[in-house]
Design a protein that fits this description.
about 220 residues; alpha/beta; Rossmann fold; 5-stranded parallel β-sheet; 4-stranded mixed β-sheet; 8 helices; 9 strands; about 40% helix
Length: about 220
């Protein structure tokens, strides 16, 4: 009996679909640990394209231009807006922040997952603009922990601290635009990154995978 036709047919039926690159949004209130999480992901050598946010805010101690943020002048940021170079942008605590389109397109075109770290206002815009984005909300265990982290920065006045706490409460009301919520508790950073990595791995094993489209 000639089994060649049967073998060929079985081989084609067992072809596993190629995984699609993801656009991963890491968001949450100021002080939830988004920057620290991104840094830990990079230290672990995760094979992702980490998109660098452009901002007009002053560079903090130990931050590196082009790595932590793209620190630009307000004039340069205005030019980027006019040239439609940003996927989204907003004013956050008096400073502009935005996601360069080219970085996202290049990452997805290369087949890599693109990771964005943005505030909740920006995440809401991404949800509207980008079909298939994977949205992860980062939070602390409670409000007291969030306030303690913000105070430890020693960069906030009492007025600005109160504003950030108020905004955090409002941002929690936006949870329904996210797909996952991850608690980033003090001294549990590695566990937090493990959970995020597990979420991403699980998404790549879905039968019906996300297909990212920057056209809405």
């Amino acid at each position: 009996m000639d089994w060649s036709g049967t073998i060929t047919r079985m081989t084609s039926e067992f072809d596993i679909p190629k995984t699609n690159p993801l656009l991963i949004v890491i968001s949450g209130p100021s002080g939830s640990g988004k920057d620290t999480i991104m840094q830990k992901m990079k230290e672990r050598g995760m094979p992702f394209q980490f998109v660098v946010t452009a901002t007009t805010r002053p560079k903090r101690e130990n931050e590196i231009d082009g790595k932590d943020y793209l620190f630009v002048s307000k004039e340069e940021f205005t030019r980027m807006i006019k040239k439609d170079e940003l996927l989204e942008h907003a004013i956050v605590y008096g400073d502009y922040k935005g996601i360069p389109k080219d970085q996202v397109r290049q990452a997805l075109a290369s087949g890599k997952n693109a990771v964005l770290r943005i505030d909740v206002q920006g995440a809401k815009t991404i949800r509207k603009l980008v079909r298939g984005a994977l949205m992860i909300f980062i939070t602390t265990a409670n409000e007291e922990e969030l306030e303690r982290r913000l105070r430890s920065r020693k960069t906030e006045t009492e007025e600005s601290l109160a504003l950030r706490i108020t905004n955090a409460r409002k941002e929690f009301q936006q949870l329904d635009i996210f797909d996952y919520v991850v608690v980033n508790s003090d001294s549990h950073l590695d566990e937090t990154v493990d959970i995020i990595h597990s979420i991403i791995e699980a998404e790549h094993h879905l039968v019906n995978q996300r297909k990212v489209s920057l056209d809405g």
